[in-house]
Specification:
2 copies of one chain form a homodimer. The first copy, chain A, is mostly helical and 127 residues long. Chain A folds into 2 domains: 1-91, Arc Repressor Mutant, subunit A, CATH 1.10.10; 93-127. The first copy, chain A, is built from 6 helices and 2 strands. The first copy, chain A, has helices at 11-23, 28-35, 43-55, 76-91, 96-106, 111-126, and strands at 59-64, 67-72. The first copy, chain A, has a two-stranded antiparallel ribbon. In chain A, a hairpin with a 2-residue loop joins strand 1 (59-64) and strand 2. In chain A, helix 2 (28-35) crosses helix 3. Chain A is elongated, with a radius of gyration of 18 Å. The structure holds a DNA duplex (30 and 30 nucleotides).
Chain lengths: 127, 127
DNA sequence: TTTAGTATACTACAAATGTAGTAATAAAAC
DNA sequence: GTTTTATTACTACATTTGTAGTATACTAAA
């Protein structure tokens, strides 16, 4: 039974989740084509990943004809939130403010980003 | 030779790094006491971690008397920056703005956090 | 100078991760 | 109807991670 989902995703797992969140329901081949159009990884490697991700409760599959179609079990928002929590707790000692300040001070944000943030802050404060 | 440092840290490795960044130079025992005052992990487990972290180029050690003292090789800022890059690229498709917006919209920031961010933004724009 | 206490160095091993090959099966093409 | 092609299912294996025990060696105490 899908062990209360709370693990870290590896880079490849994130990639797989992203295309599935984006496209909805896909076969291994679809995902593979999307992620590795030049065959950087073997097809069966991705197959293995995706089947292991079912065991982890991240995906589920359904066979239609002879092809398996996979889809996310976990919501993107939820996963992002959990991952952010874990990341902040590891890298920023649990302080979201620290991370936010780091972002603002890091030069990693474009001026559009900054404007969007200001707007969001104003909206949030307006309520 | 310290293979250009670019790996992910596990939760435990982050913990070790954090106490070392904080305190400077410590023995295994010091770190262990700090992180697991109730012996949640075996002393030798931490020893193993710290020695592996030397191979990964994260720490270095120096023997004084019969005790090894460990210290970080990589700067905290740099590590945080790299880790943030990787995290954003995995979880937010590479968009820092997305992460920042997510943070502001998530309710994870306190009002002091928000104020600090506004101040930082103003300062940044003032220059 | 034998003994008891520490810290180190080395070894061990299971689980998870990264990577992919091969066997089997079904459909399509000939 | 036999061959080829597409997929899946299963197996394999090296590396890394998590966890810790044991053997050594040195210091301090008795």
């Amino acid at each position: 039974m899908s062990k209360i989902n709370n693990q870290n995703l590896s880079e490849i797992e994130w990639g797989i989740m992203r295309v599935l969140w984006d496209k909805g329901v896909l076969s291994v081949k679809d995902v593979w084509n999307k992620l590795y159009p030049n065959g950087e990884k073997a097809y069966t490697t991705i197959q293995t990943y995706m089947d292991r991700m079912i065991e982890k409760g991240l995906l589920r599959k359904e066979k239609i004809g002879l092809v398996n179609f996979y889809q996310p079990v976990v919501q993107q928002e939820k996963m992002m939130s959990q991952a952010t929590d874990r990341f902040v707790s590891n890298a920023f000692g649990g302080s979201f403010g620290h991370l936010a300040a780091f972002l603002v001070g890091s030069g990693k944000l474009s001026s559009e980003d900054i404007n969007k943030i200001k707007k969001l802050i104003n909206e949030a404060e307006g309520e």
